[in-house]
Specification:
The protein is an alpha+beta fold and 389 residues long. Helices cover 41% and strands 22% of the residues. It contains 9 helices and 14 strands. The strands form 3 sheets. The protein has an 8-stranded antiparallel β-sheet, covered by helices on one side. A 3-stranded antiparallel β-sheet has the order 1-3-2, with helices on one face. The radius of gyration is 32 Å and the shape is elongated. About 2% of the residues have low confidence.
């Protein structure tokens, strides 16, 4: 069996000159390219010392004239010049010299080659990068325009896989900007070389290999995290309200019964969300007189995250959809005197009040037609939910 070695090829179209040097480096170590399979280079032991490589860019089929016989006509011209096609990747075509043939260079006019590079690699790469950046910017603007949504950034911590996916998508966005700058910089290098009558420059090998390897890794990581997030299913789950069980697990909630506003009914339920980094427990109860009591407890893995939850909720009260439904509009902040070690914000609205509390690794949000400025109610909430020093 013939010995083979495998290496990731994956060069960007604009780095085709670096790909040629990379293949020559393999040749100097005694290996020649047998074929390219989905961006993977397959090498076999060098069979002849006179082997030469030429790497070029091919016209996309959509740009070929009707009179041409597709990409095959270009390959036949290269074959007549002593070259045979060995592999393809994107617009890159890898040619090897035929045994015993004196080859003619595929590209002989550097000005024409520079124009070909600009049309086939640099302009499309920069255009794609600008398109991605513009689309992302437009999406961000649309999100700002519909800023009444009650989504909070801290909610990404409910699901670590989704958080990781967002981080990687941000990294891909940064990578897109890097690709634009790399294409622009190489285009300027080529233009300056021609203006100063210097040799056609090659991309730096280290940067070219970095570009060939990093983007597939980022895309694969995003896909893996997206699949993991998809398979994990809904992070929310509902169950009957059991205050004693919640207290036993260390995450107690205050109920209508604790505040003297009615008992716990069989239909009262609890909704859980999140995981180890951040988890929430939410209940909505009917109280005496026909009102509603909303209680949401957020437990974070770190105090700084609970502080961030409290801060985001405080700043987002004006656009919070749940608050608008339960309490109405026209908010007026009220002074409250929470127990020691507890941060508090209380706002009175037309149909009820909203109280935010934070202590240690826990943040709490309560809504209802209650007087949260009453120290007895505050003490009961803090005691039942184990907040404060």
């Amino acid at each position: 069996m013939k010995e083979r070695r495998y290496a990731w090829f994956g060069f960007a179209d604009l780095d085709y000159k670096a790909a040629e040097q990379w293949l020559e480096d393999w040749k100097s170590r005694g290996w020649e390219l047998e074929k390219l399979i989905c961006g993977m280079a397959v090498f076999v032991p060098l069979s002849r010392p006179d082997l030469r490589y030429s790497v070029d860019l091919a016209q996309p089929r959509r740009l070929l004239g009707a009179a041409e016989d597709g990409a095959g006509s270009y390959d036949r011209l290269c074959a007549d010049a002593g070259w045979e096609l060995t592999g393809r990747w994107g617009l890159i075509r890898v040619y090897q010299s035929k045994p015993g043939r004196t080859v003619v260079p595929i590209q002989t006019d550097e000005a024409l080659e520079a124009d070909r590079l600009r049309r086939l690699a640099l302009v499309p790469a920069m255009g794609a990068a600008l398109g991605t950046l513009a689309t992302t910017a437009l999406y961000a603007v649309l999100l700002l325009l519909i800023g009444h949504s009650s989504f909070y950034p801290f909610q990404m911590f409910y699901e670590p896989a989704a958080l990781g996916e967002m981080v990687l998508l941000a990294a891909l966005l940064v990578w897109t900007g890097y690709e634009f700058c790399a294409a622009l910089a190489y285009g300027i290098r080529v233009w300056l070389a021609l203006e100063r009558d210097r040799a056609f420059p090659r991309p730096q090998m280290g940067a070219a290999r970095f570009r060939s390897g990093m983007k597939p890794v980022l895309i694969l990581a995003v896909l893996v995290l997206a699949l993991g997030s998809l398979l994990s299913g809904d992070i929310r789950r509902s169950e009957p309200l059991d205050p004693a069980a919640l207290a036993a697990e260390g995450h107690p909630v205050v109920t209508a019964a604790d505040l003297g506003l009615g008992g716990t009914l069989p239909e009262d339920g609890l909704t859980r969300a999140g995981g180890r980094m951040l988890s929430s427990r939410t209940l909505l109860q009917t109280i005496d007189g026909g009102g509603l009591l909303y209680v949401r407890r957020e437990d974070a893995a770190w105090p700084w995250l609970a502080e961030e939850v409290f801060t985001e909720l405080s700043r987002g009260l004006d656009r919070d959809e749940i608050r608008e439904i339960l309490c109405g509009g026209g908010g007026t902040e009220q002074a409250v005197d929470p127990p020691a070690g507890v941060r508090a914000v209380c706002v009175r609205y037309e149909r009820g009040s909203c109280l935010l509390l934070q202590s240690g690794r826990t943040a709490v949000r309560l809504m209802g037609d209650l007087d949260f400025t009453d120290s007895a109610i505050l003490d009961t909430i803090a005691s039942k939910m184990q907040l404060g020093a």
